[in-house]
Amino acid sequence: MRSVGVMFLSLLIVLASACLSNAPAGEKTGTTSVPSPHTPETTPSSPPALSNATSPKISQQNVTSTTQTTPKRENSSQIQHKRTLNLSSVRSWAYWLQNASPEVIAKSGFDLIVMDYSRDGGDETAYTREEIAGIKRAGVIPIAYISIGEAADYRFYWNESWKTEPPDWLGPENPEWEGNYAVKYWEEGWRRIVFEYLDRIIAQGFRGVYLDKVDEYWFWAENGYDENWTAGQMIEFILQIANYARSKAGEDFIVIPQNGEWLLNYDNGSLLKTVSGWASEDVFYDGLKPSLWTDEKVPLLDRVVKAGKVVLVVDYLDDGTRSGEDLARILDFIEKARERGYVPYAALEDRELDELNVIPGVQPPR
């Protein structure tokens, strides 16, 4: 079987190399704003006494699910989209956060796109409902990126006074990502902001959300809080997000967390039952080298596949040269992902996610 895979790999390299000049270029489009949101009610619990952190692979805790609210009835247009945009049929996806073009996305051939709600993260460049509808009409599922474990100083909710007088829920700046700050995601003030954010995303017509920084529970566990509790609070937050969004947008609204797969070790089944799938970075490759996380991530992601949920994996392994070595690495990643039932996206090594990485004959598959 492995020799057949190698022959197939070699054939694809030849075919891909012959088609390299046909990749589409990114575009920029106009700007507009979105409707004002409605703020939901949330009541987070108080944190327990501080204790030493423990390993997420050892500690486990059952977490009780929140009660789902009955969703509103969908109109005929929404029902038509639901028939054509089926998550279970997704075989390709792309990740484009900076200045994404709805027109390019619609023509790209990908089944699903993870994109920001605006071109540059601010309200003034937010996509219109009509632009998102155009993506859906093309048969592409639009999913909105949102960080629920960090706040960013370029988002609509940011107040410049927070840099000198931060609210109780705002933590330190991430030294690796300037302008991004850890948040105490169990606090009411931050949860209210996230629900306001969800209202904007739902109003734009996105089919779901892509929840980044769910692994922030590690940060707080390393800074004095009990890891069982921080993991449990993150699980509870994800469940609240899913319940709230589906009460407004319909029960088929997609919720996909990114990274933090170790949360499944704390789950009593409610989290895996509630989410639509899981996404993970650096599963097989960390840049141009094999990932050190593969042996830990794969069993957890396999658990998601076994539950009948989609798994999206993105490795930043494309150096952009389209050399034989580059294509061999890309195809090896794609083959390994598909063998396990994951949906792969080979991203550029720079991790900027500022363009659609189309590899003719390879990504998206024809």
Automatic annotation (TrEMBL):
**Residue numbers spanned by region Disordered:** 25-81
Bias class Low complexity marks the residues at 31-51, 59-70
Gene3D superfamilies named in the record: Aldolase class I
All copies of the Glycoside-hydrolase family GH114 TIM-barrel domain together span 92-353
Would you tell me the protein name for this molecule?
Glycoside-hydrolase family GH114 TIM-barrel domain-containing protein
Organism equals: Thermococcus barossii
